[in-house]
Design brief:
With 115 residues, this protein is mainly α. The protein has helices at 7-11, 25-44, 47-69, 74-89, 92-113.
Amino acid sequence: MLLGVGVGQVGQGLPGRELDGGGLGHLAALDADDALHAVLVTRCGNGAVTATVERFTPLVRRLERLRFAAAHGADSVDLHDRLIAACERRDVEDAVSVTTAIWTALLAELSEETP
């Protein structure tokens, strides 16, 4: 549990864990991603973080779709599993490290899109 919120519950039986290279699995992965991050954002209790996430989610959605629909999208599932595990252990350093890896991978999609 992350400060009383069962983050691990989000990770168990997630739809979209089996990404299918652009089929419906990536849509389920986006839903699962939203569910996980909603737990984390809600639990932090910071209105500025909530407003920022709500403001920028539509802007990063295209990158997320590219990431989850790609063959290497399963890497994101693995990173999110590591994030859930770090939160369950209350390992802040690992959670920050994994979060950085998640965002770095997402930003790599942008550089791959740019000629």
